[in-house]
Amino acid sequence: MNDMAAKLSRLPSTDPSRPRMAAPARDPAFASRVFWLGLALVLLWPLAVATEFRLWVLWEPENRKVTADFLASFWPLVHNTEFMQMVVRETWRTVAMATAGVTLALLLALPLSLLATRVLSLSALSGRMDRWPAVLRWCVRAALIVLRSIPELIWALVFVRVVGLGPTAGVLAIALTYGGMLGKVYAEILESGESHATQTLMRNGSGRLQAFVYALLPSHAAELASYTVYRWECAIRSSVVLGFVGAGGLGQQLDNSMKMFNGGEVATLLLVFIALVALADRVSAWLRKALA
């Protein structure tokens, strides 16, 4: 009873006769917010100077005229039968390039991510990984860093010289860069969850592949699938950019139309690309919901 009385005595009183504490006149965290905002501005100012970021030049009269003339060239849209047949064909090629590239990236990322995951190391069950498994894991992670550090545009330039113009260069470029991205994120996802079931299986004689299939994969399948679908959506956007270096698809046609100063074709291709990205976004959202 004494403890209960003490707790009740510490609660705020509801007696109207007692004076109430006045609310603070301003936000107590106002000073800290102003400090951090000022610090952010101080840190960002040198970056703006280094990048010569001058947003106001967009409103200068000559720049507004150039922008208006460029946008005016987009009309009327080109939609004749021959051109639209080509657009449909190149749109399909763009989707195929992205899908094939992500598929090859999966074939590269899955084994590398299993080798890079510490939870699946038999030598790490004792608490400290042996020397050679640790060296192998470090080499695999270094390889993943190299793959994802080189942009797919650079890989495409290399493969265009090797295999020639066409979607093959884009597929290989997406496969290497996205293989590094997927392998790195897969390993982090697998290491971030509960590892008790995995270690139990491995302590009882299970191999790392069996531990992955029966312990790690069921608990992380939705997250792995969600990130894979997101990367497929990104690959569709990347495949259009790769077309500017001769990798085929919508990007190459867009580059050709811009070089010929045909604004109507450019506008049509941009609208088709926007619709394609929107469709990919809806498909990826549906897949994430289905796998959740």
Could you describe the 3D structure shown?
With 292 residues, the protein is mostly helical. Helices cover 74% and strands 0% of the residues. Helix 4 (81-116) packs antiparallel against helix 5, helix 9 packs antiparallel against helix 11 (263-291) and helix 10 runs antiparallel to helix 11 (263-291). The protein is globular.
Q: How would you summarize the topology of this molecule?
A:
Elements: H1 2-10, H2 30-50, H3 61-72, H4 81-116, H5 131-149, H6 152-163, H7 167-192, H8 196-203, H9 208-242, H10 250-259, H11 263-291
Major β-sheet, in short? none
Give helix % range.
over 70%
Q: Which CATH architecture is right?
A: Orthogonal Bundle
CATH class: Mainly Alpha
CATH superfamily: MetI-like
* Span of the ends, CA to CA: 50 Å
Low-confidence stretches: none
The quaternary state of the protein chains shown equals single chain
How many helices? The count is 11
- Strand residue percentage: under 5%
Q: Please name the CATH topology.
A: MetI-like fold
Can you count the beta strands? 0
Radius of gyration: 28 Å
Domain count: 1
Global mean pLDDT: 79
- Derived structural class: mainly alpha
Q: Globular, elongated, flat, extended or rod-shaped: what is the shape?
A: globular
Order of helices and strands: HHHHHHHHHHH
